[in-house]
Each structure stands twice: as structure tokens, then as C-alpha cells.
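hi!! sorry for the late reply, been swamped w classes. u asked for the two structures so here they r. pasted raw, havent cleaned anything up. first the sequence of the first protein and right below it the C-alpha cells
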Amino acid sequence: MGMNGGAEAKRMVMVVAEPTSESAAALQYAISHAMMEKDELILIQVGNPSSWKSTFTTFLKRPASPAAVGGGGGGGRGDWDHLEAMRLACTHALPKVRVRIERVAMGSKDDKATTILHYCKLFSVDLLIVGQRRSLSTMLGSRRHSGRHLRLAKATDTAEYLIENSKCNCVGVQKKAQNAGYLLNSKTQRNFWLLA
């Protein structure tokens, strides 16, 4: 698309990488729709490493070989296995894209969203992609959350905070069924449907 002899500028793309189906959807969107060959991808996980479980590989549509992603549960790398699985999925789908993993351990008083925004600025990120889960009450604008929905509300709030406060382009991604496409949210577009 570039006018200077076809050369396009390299972009820095960051995907918030957690062991969830929402992060898997964000990564699938990044690989299939957002990344170009000259881009660089940063997979960032922010939080308390001891509280994560290696469940990400179950969400990958086409995981790498079982030996490469940890062999199905146990022994070796601990709670960070999903990051390596995500990196392997990226390098398999886009072999020319450089993929980096950033693990950021947070203290109990740190805020996840502001930490991610700090790293976006630090790495000069052009595009931030975050998996987003939206409940019916969130879509209707309700701010009430019962105790059992607190985790869902916190995850939604983090994604919304990133979308609204990032200096770079930020896209919240929701996967809709297996082949139904994506529902995208950004500062300028809400509930944009992208067919797969």
C-alpha cells in the first residue's frame, strides 16, 4: 500500500496474552487480519505468575506439536507455557514476523491496565490487541456486578480501559462462534462485525 516503491513501514503490534479463550481470539485476529510480514509482535502477560494455569493450548485452533507446547500438562516450564504456545502459533502462521514475549509480574497494588499502557509507550506500540468478553449487562450499560461476576467485570473493565485510554490504536476482540467472525471495539468503532 505504500507509495515509496511498495515498501510499508514496520509496525509494532502488542497482544495481551493470558491463558483465556479471549486472548486466543485476540491472537487469531492478529494473525489472520492485523499482522503484515514486516511487523513485529509482542506477546505481553501482566499479572501474578503463580496464579496462572497453562490452559491456553486448549484454545488454539491449530496448536503446534504437543511436545513443543508442553506435552499436555506438566513438568517443565510451569505457568508460562501458554506464552510459548502462542509464540509457536505465530511463527508457524507468520514465519517472517519477529515475535517477542514480555512477562511482567505485578505487585498486589499495581494496576494491570496502566501497566500495559506503560509498556505500550515503552515499546512504541502502534497497535494493541486485547481479548474482550462482554456480558449482557455490560452491553446494556449496567455497572452492577454481583460477587460471582466480579472477575468478568474486572476483565471487561481492563479491556475497556485500554481501548479508551491507549495512545496507540487499540482493538478489543471477541470471537463469535467457530467460523462466525469477530466483534471488534475501538475508540471510534463499537460492535463492528468482521466476518471470518
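now the second protein. again sequence first, C-alpha cells right under
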Amino acid sequence: MMVTITILNDIYDVRGTLEELELFAEAIERWDVDAKEGLPKCMQVFYKTLLDLYNEIGCELTRKGRSCCLFFAKEAMKIQVRAYLAEAKWLHQGHVPTMEEYMPIALTTIGCELTFVTAFLGTGDVVTKDDFDWLLFSDPKIVKASQVICRLMNDIAGHKGDGTDHYVNAGSNLKEYVTCLLANPLAM
């Protein structure tokens, strides 16, 4: 799943025009192979591969009597794509978000929820539908803490690196950002 998240992130960060990215997000929301029409070839290939991967996961879940879990995997991917699209809109519009705008989106784009849902899929009967509901829809503190830690590590590395993290580096003070996260990480 990490490779999928990385490719998806790259599509939204560097590959598509805003119009293409909006079309791609619409295709993800529809979750239908026919929705790939009108997408650039590279997005069509990724989209088809993504649907094939989830269909394979769905077949395995169905074989184990857990087909209801596929909904949560798809929903986590849709949530991820919505957040990537929000960041892409900021970038294409030259908008530097406030911390209040940035954090809810940035905590999603770090990919913890999608990764956790994917991990839950492999646990068999140990994880129930209620556990998936809890993970995706109740904003649990342990998930929020994981998101904050991962986002902080990613943004610090991006700040020290090549400076291509357009959201943290563009006009914000890293020291203030880190202090804000450390002072009240679960309030984000």
C-alpha cells in the first residue's frame, strides 16, 4: 500500500494539471473502471491498477466472509484523494494555507488512516466492522497522535531537504509550526 500512496501522492504533487486532478478525484469517487475515460494515460493506468488491486482484495475478503470490510478500504482511499486534491488546489492557486486550513488536510495526506485501514484488512476476524467505523469516523486520539508524529517528521525532513514542501516552507515559520504541534498535538 505504501507504493500506492507514494504514486498517488506524486500524481497530485507533480504530475497533473488541476483539471486532470479533479477528474481523477471524481473517478476515485465513482470507483468505476469506465470513469478512467478522459484521464491522461498515466492516470488511466494507475486508476485501473488501483481498481484491480482493490478487486483482488475484495475477492479475498469475500472468500473469508468479510466483504463488508472493502467499503472501508475504498472510503479510506477516497478520503486520501480528497485531501490530496485540496493540497493540489492550494498549490495550483498559489494559496499558502493558514495553520488552521493546513493541519486537517496535512494530517490526512500523511496517509496514516489509509495505512491503518489496510493493516486492519489483514487481521482476519480480530477486527470488526465497528473497529473500522471507529478508525475512520470517530477521530480516535491514537490515530491523531500517529498523524501528528508522521506529519511533523515529514515536514521537518522536507524543510531540511530540497524545500519542495510548498505548504510548510512557503511563508510559515518551522519553529512556530513545531511548537504548535508539540504544545497541543491532539487539538489539530
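hope this helps!! also noticed smth abt the second:
DSSP finds nine helices and no strands in the chain.
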